[in-house]
Amino acid sequence: MRVPLSWLREYVDLPADVTGRQVAEQLIRAGLEVETVEESDLTGPLVVGKVLTYENEPQKNGKTIRWCSLDIGKDEPQWVVCGAHNFEVGDLVVVVLPGAVLPGGFAISARKTYGHVSNGMICSSAELGLGDDGTHGIVVLEPGEATPGDDAIELLALRDDVLDIAVTPDRGYCLSIRGVAREAATAYGVSLRDPADLTLTGSGENGYPVRVDDAKACSVFVTRTVTGIDATALSPRWMQKRLLAAGMRPISIGVDVANYVMLELGQPIHTYDKARLSGEIVVRRANAGEKLMTLDDQTRELDAEDLLITDDSGPIGVAGVMGGASTEISDATTDVVIEAAHFDPIVIARASRRHKLSSEASRRFEREVDPNLPRYAAQRVADLLAEYAGGTILPDETVVDTHPKPAPVTIRADHAARVAGAVITLDETVRHLASVGCTIEAAAADAVAAPLAAGAHAPVLAEVGVTTVGSTHVEGDDLLTVTPPSWRPDLRDPNDFAEEVIRLFGFDNVPSVLPAAPGGQGLTVSQRRRRRVATALVGAGLTEVVSYPFTGAADFDAMGLPADDVRRTTIKLVNPISDEEPSMQTTLLATLLRTAERNVGRGANDLAIFQTGLVFLPKAETKAAPLPSVAHRPSDAEVQSLYDALPDQPLHVGVVLTGALAPTGWWGKGRPAGWADAVQIARLIASVVGVEPIVKNVELAPWHPGRCAEFSVGGPDGMVVGHAGELHPKVCQAFGLPARSSAVELDLDALIAAGPESIAAQPFSSYPVAKEDVALIVPAEVAAADVQAALTEGAGELLESVRLFDVYTGEQIGEGKKSLAFALRFRAPDRTLKENEVADARQAAVQVTVDRFGAVQRVG
Amino acid sequence: MSGPNTDYDPVEVTPLHAEEVERTRDEALTAFTEAADLAALQEAKTVHLGDKSPIVLANREIGALPPQARKEAGQRIGAARKAINEGFASRLAVLEAEHEERMLATERVDVTLPWHTPQLGARHPLSLISEQVADVFTALGWDVAEGPEVEAEWLNFDALNFQPDHPARQMQDTFFVEPAGSGKVLRTHTSPVQARSMLSRKPPIYVICPGRVFRTDELDATHTPVFYQVEGLVVDEGITLAHLKGTLDHFVVSMFGEGLEARLRPNFFPFTEPSAEVDLKCFVCRGASVGNPDRPCRTCGSEGWIEWGGCGVVNPRVLQANGIDTDRYSGFAFGMGLERTLMFRNGVEDMRDMVEGDVRFSRQFGMEI
Predict the structure, then answer these.
(1) Which residues contact A693 (CB under 8 A, 6 or more apart)?
(2) Most CB atoms closer than 10 Å: which of A75, A247, A349, A757?
(3) Interface contact A538-B242, CB threshold 8 A
């Protein structure tokens, strides 16, 4: 809502020297969101001039200019060149003098033009920032409107600050100058001259026939009729100026007056050409198949839920949203039917959404308009049309009014003070409620039903005193019966009234008290472990990044996922940012590889990045989430069904490594990051959370089929928690990554859940260690991890550790075989091991590998 | 050992003459002193302390002396040997020290050279700031609560008093989950975590909820469709607006420094009543730039205050929808955008830097913000 300060001043006696910024500050304190204050860049001198003489001088370019002398209240006339011809000697005009700046930053100086030195210029409406007045010439003032030399800036109120206010949904009444003026009056403690305080001249009967079929959707419908207007009359300059300042374009007297009254009072108005109406106006819901061409010349299919204004010809408007073209007023219109109505906010909101049509009217109706306004607003429109378009107001008036009166609400007299935790006296409470327009009655405390709990944090207020409402003496636990004003339908609950009191009391005056929470337990195990994983990855040289979780087929294709891959089954969005990425990620790599691609594209060739984030896994059966009542807590079953309807959303961690892990340098050759680094990072993550995973070779996109490690927890038949390894060459290519880039993705939630609750300390032996090496020749396809597991199993309790230290393939051991060399350490808790004990344990370990894999010990 | 040679004339055993012993000793000491390095010292040692050295040979002669002369000769030779041994040892110590010093000097390196093990990586500053916020509130005894990002519409809106046709619900620019009418959305704020907390816990409830949220904004310098928020919720007996202010003041001081405070400006949010915007006293100029063109402040635009978030007293309708006894309990809630916080706190000028995943952005922070 754009509010010109001069318009505001018409209804509120603001201090004379107060600026737009200062008013804005006060309104912000009162809870209005003033987004900007536009300050006019116009500076004088800009004066009234009287035309003394002029000469018409034809020019070579075909134009005729006028060389004019003007009386600007000085001894000598002012000489200027003027291109317009719509004035005569003796007319009063507006003259801008050298040194002035016109709106838009146009600086004026004396300049040579058409053979003369023009000392300023005579201004048009547009040049003064008043918009096009339709004259195609300069502004001619009314005779006697001013004296030569008068300051035209003041005369025409040209320099005006405009406040732009973002009106929150609860403050619909502030979508009007009237509403903002009410706040300004309260803020400055001055009285409001209510522009709706008009004399009603209507008879309340015999107006244009109207029938309302849906009284809930349309609770008030008022019409007035003005006859014999000149629809081509120009709107007065002040009205045009205010419309422009408020952001609306002047169009014609009929339209302008309706818009002006809407801005002034907040009541949307519709005007009909009476001659184009046929029969009774009926307000009803649409029938299937009905259509309407609206004022924007679009034909709209109507929905059965749409509330319509109709006449015998059919629909002539979507109520409260937009009128129809067929009954629009035109230059030929003489008789006008004015509609001022009250529509249900939800009906209007839905229609506006359905037709994707947000109008000035619908914006106001959606936030609910003062239901008492229609008769006054219709009167105001009629008055303005009679005055400026020469019409005659008929006393006939249609008034349909079934709107319920505002319901009184009973609150504890000290409720606002209790909500605030501040000492707000009853006197203040009553005063603030009255200033927002509430009427207040008091009742004794006997009626207080529920005693208020003592409370862990005793409210800060101690005493709130007493006050008098009418003839009743009120104390803190007495009750106030408060009836909100008609323009505040948002005031329904005790806290709504508390908010009004507290904002006028001043949020700044509320004390600051830190509440004492009961003792907490700190972060959860999962939260702590997640932090440690991130810290460990950073220690290993990885950098954390974030990326959007949106993905699509292109990413899955680039990852080489088969057509039936489960990761292609996604949660999709109805309205994604991009149609190419309609899905929520089922794998972090879909988005992390894109992030890697972007970094590589920006010149980061050696990249080690990680991200943690949710993935979104559809359930086998998709159910809609219910929308239970909000009148009370949903049942446990309902709550469960809310949770069950959602997809699984585990937290994953993803890693991408590209290029060199160690660069080439003075120490020697660099080392590329490879599959083993990826696997090692996955092992690192597992060990940070205290899990010893089982690792094995698998084939899975987007990894290299021979270089992908599957990680699982919970034993041989446990759960797969992720993968690590080198990316498939085609994947590297598709994402523009260096060859042999590698990646990890692990289900961090599952890993963390598999971690220990606590660790029991084990005693360790101080007896000497016995070291044994063993080299085993096994078939090439046997996994080292399995051989190691077999050794561990066979070696028994005396084994302290086993570590693979060499892998050999070559002629010496034959094709299809490999030699794995392990270092075994044996130690007993209670004695020095004897040679034969160690030898036996070693032999037992080897035997398991012989039995299981046909291993042969390599000698020498 | 042979028996005493009684005919032997000690005077004739030259090496045992006192002056001869002294000469032998002095020659040895001189040779040691003159040994320039350890090798020369070893050579001198062989000559002057070896098996065939004069002093060792002289020692052997003692047995040849008559018993009455042996004692004196033995003492003389013993003293000389001791002196020679000490001379050797002290020279050895000096030469070894010199040798070590020389060797260490040759091993000097340029410690400014880089090395090949990975440098420390970096956390994303959004993670760091959200952990910092969590730490501030866990220190107060609050819990860190979390929830899913694909959320039930009811929890995201209805449970928070966003009625189906209320303009506030339209203002949230929501991503809806297919199919239309699924009752599921990408959460538009972290507030559904508040609803979940109320549904799953019994008061007193003190929770802080950091998390990622979604709105259908186009990415530009100040907007992103995916961003991070942190919200706090308290439900307890006797909770008031004053407690909200106290909490926000504490939060401001914890994040931005001593002496700062929060300011509330009335506003509207469906889930709180009364509602307010939270401003933070500018931590750079502390208000000194207001009306002072000579000292403009970029951080607050010379306003003295920085818009930070929203807050309010939990609307009793919200408590009611989530099963909290409104006669007994009241609450407050607040929420801030973490990107915005980083922007003014750390001078990040473009939102896109925070969301594009360029490692250079994270790397400038490392492990600290």
Answers:
(1) A682, A683, A686, A711, A712, A713, A721, A751
(2) A349
(3) no
Minimal C-alpha gap between A493 and chain B (Å): 9
As a whole number of angstroms, the distance between CA A85 and CA A75 comes to 26
Q: Residue A732: what pLDDT?
A: 96
Distances (CA, A) of A608 to A91, A363, A537, A597, A665: 80, 51, 10, 12, 19
CB A79 within 8 A of CB A69: yes
- DSSP readout, B340-360? HHHHHHH----HHHHHS--HH
Report the C-alpha gap between B119 and A56 in whole angstroms: 84
CB A271 within 8 A of CB A287: no
- Chain B hits for A518, CB-CB cut-off 8 Å, are 141, 204, 206
Looking at residue B345, which CATH number applies to its domain? 3.30.930.10
For testing contact with chain B, the best of A364, A464, A499 (most B CBs within 10 A) = A499
pLDDT reported for residue A253: 94
User: Closest residue of B to A668, CA-based?
Assistant: B116
Question: Which residue matches tokens 């109320």?
Answer: B198
Question: H or E stretch including B132?
Answer: helix B125-138
Structure tokens at B116: 């090949």
| Residues of the domain holding A59 | 46-155
Cβ distance of B116 and A665 shorter than 8 Å? yes
State the pLDDT confidence band at B31, using cuts at 50, 70 and 90: very high
Instruction: List Cα–Cα distances, A582 to B177, B186, B189, B219, in angstroms.
Output: 10, 13, 21, 16
- H or E stretch including A35? strand A33-38
CATH of residue A370: 3.50.40.10
CA A337 – CA A225 distance, rounded (Å): 5
Residue type, B239: I
What is the Cα A496 distance to its own chain's centre?
24
The complex scores an ipTM of 0.86
Consecutive sets of 10 residues in chain A, 860 residues long: mean pLDDT of each?
A: 92 90 90 86 87 90 89 90 90 91 85 88 83 74 85 81 90 94 93 93 94 96 96 88 88 94 97 96 94 91 94 94 92 96 94 91 94 96 96 95 92 93 92 92 58 39 59 77 92 94 93 94 95 97 95 96 96 94 96 95 93 96 90 94 96 96 88 94 97 94 96 90 97 96 98 93 92 95 93 95 94 90 95 94 96 88
Residue B38 pLDDT exceeds 60: yes
Output the six-digit token pair for B199: 């549904």
Q: Per the structure, how many domains does chain B have? A: 2
Chain A residues 231-250 with a CB less than 8 Å from chain B: none
Task: Say whether both A812 and A729 belong to one domain.
Answer: no
* Facing B165 at nearest CB: one of A346, A418, A649: A346
DSSP one-letter string for B246-278:
HHHHHHHHHHH-TT--EEEEEEEETTEEEEEEE
SS3 A33: strand
Q: Are residues A263 and A133 in the same domain?
A: no
Q: Which two tokens stand for residue B82?
A: 């001791």
